Amino acid sequence: MHRQVSLIGAPTDVGAGTRGSGMGPEALRVANIVPLLESHGIEVLDRGNLAGPANPWAPPVEGYRHLAAVVAWNESVHNAIYKELGLGRFPILMGGDHCLAIGSISAVARHCRETGRKLRVLWLDAHADFNTNLLTPSGNIHGMPVACLCGRGPRELVEIGGHIPALSPREVRQIGIRSVDPGEKQLVHEVGLEVFDMRYVDEMGMRATMDAALVDVDSDTHVHVSFDVDFLDPEIAPGVGTTVPGGPTYREAQLCMEMIADTGRLASLDVMELNPALDVRNRTAEVALELIESLFGKSTLMRKSAVVPREGS
Ligand SMILES: [Mn+2]
Fold this sequence. Notes:
The protein is α/β, with parallel strands linked by helices and 313 residues long. 35% of the residues lie in helices and 17% in strands. The protein has one domain (4-295): Arginase, Chain A, CATH 3.40.800.
C-alpha cells in the first residue's frame, strides 16, 4: 500500500442534475480527511482544488449538458492525476460529480499502460453510469463516464488520455448497482461489463461479492476504486443528489472496503458525488471518511493484523 497520498479537489457539479457536489472537496476537508489519513501513518499532501469553468446550468445539446465545461474539467483532472502517479504517489480525487472519473481513470489507465501494470477498476455506485447521448433521459454526463472510458461517447471525452478506448470493460467490476435505464442496461450487457448488482449482493453476501470482484488481482495489479457516495444506502448517506434505496448497509460497505484493503493493491481512489447541500450536519462526509479509513487498512473488527490472508493474494 502506498503511504504517500495526494489530495486533489475538483469542485464542480458540471456533469450532475442537481447542484451541490462542487462543495464535496471542502466537506471532506471539514470532516478531517488530512488528519484522519495521517493518523494511519500516511503522508498526505493536499494539492488544493483544480480550477475550471463555472456550471452554465444549460439544457442538453445533442444529448449532452455542458459538454465543453465537462471536457475542460476532465482534462484538468487527467493531468493532475497522471502527474501524481508519475511521482509515485497515491492520488485521491475529491469530487465533484462522477463525470470527473473520465479524467482520473483515463490517467490511471494511461499510467498502467506505460508501466506495464494490470488494472482493475472497482466502480462502487448505485448506477452503471453507462449512458450515451442517445440513451440518456437527462443529458447529464455524470451518467456516462464508464461508457466514455470504454470508448462510447463524444470524441473530446473518449480521447482524453490519448488511447481509445481508455479502458476495456474487462478491467471493470461494478458493485452495488440498482438503478439502470432500460437502453443503458442493454448496452451494459452488449459490452460484457461485469456487474455485481444489489440482487447479487443480497443473494451471495458482500464477502462472496468482493471475492468475485477481486479474483485475479495479483502483485502486478493496480486497483483503482471509483467510489460514488450514492453506492451507500441513503439511510447512512443522505448527502448525494441521486439517492437510490436498497444500497449496502454500513457494515456491508465496511466489509467491502476492508476486503479491498486486504489485497494491498489499492493505488488510486475517487470519492465522488458527495453533496453537502443535501447532507445533514456533514454526516455523509463523515461516513465516507470512515470508509476511506477502512480502504487504508483501518479494520473495524478485532484483528491481530490488518492483513487477512486470502486466496490468490
Ligand atoms: Mn456514479
